[in-house]
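The material for today's practical consists of a large collection of protein records. There is nothing in a record beyond a sequence line and a structure line. As an example, a complete record with its sequence and its structure tokens follows:
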Amino acid sequence: MKEDDPLYVAGKSLAERMGIPFNFILVNRYKDGDDALSHHADDERDLAPGVPIVILSVGASRTMEFKRKVKKKSRKRTRPQSEGGDTNTNKDTMRAGKTRDSGHKRENGGTIRMLLNHGDVLVMAGTTQQLYTHAIPRPNKSRREEPMPFAYECNGVTVTTKCRYSLTLREMVQR
């Protein structure tokens, strides 16, 4: 990517404004709603430890999902019992449903879904990569989800696109 490329300029400007020493920009292009990225954690060994990963969303809106990583269960089975010998039920594990929190949707199983619009910045810091995986899923056709197109003006003509770019700013360690 050349230094005068608009995506490079946007990423460099964001890095400077945040005061974080990014030295690497990963650009993902999603041409439409059929392009997706499966659940993963950014755990490459060359990532600088403790430095946040910052995402700048450019173009059409898409949903990003976060799922809490599940620890592998041990094979040893235990049956919690109350004083009367009856099986004790943990009521917290039986709660279900959706809640809204700061515009984000938390679904059953701990999935957090957030809509990233043009110009939105998402910071993944702290233990995000250790505790969660993240993805850009395909829109759910049964719920009639569609990527929200982005419209912009170019030489007096309004252009509408379903294309989205994700600029991921990182600090990589030289090995």
Notes: Residues 6-18 form the longest helix (13 residues).
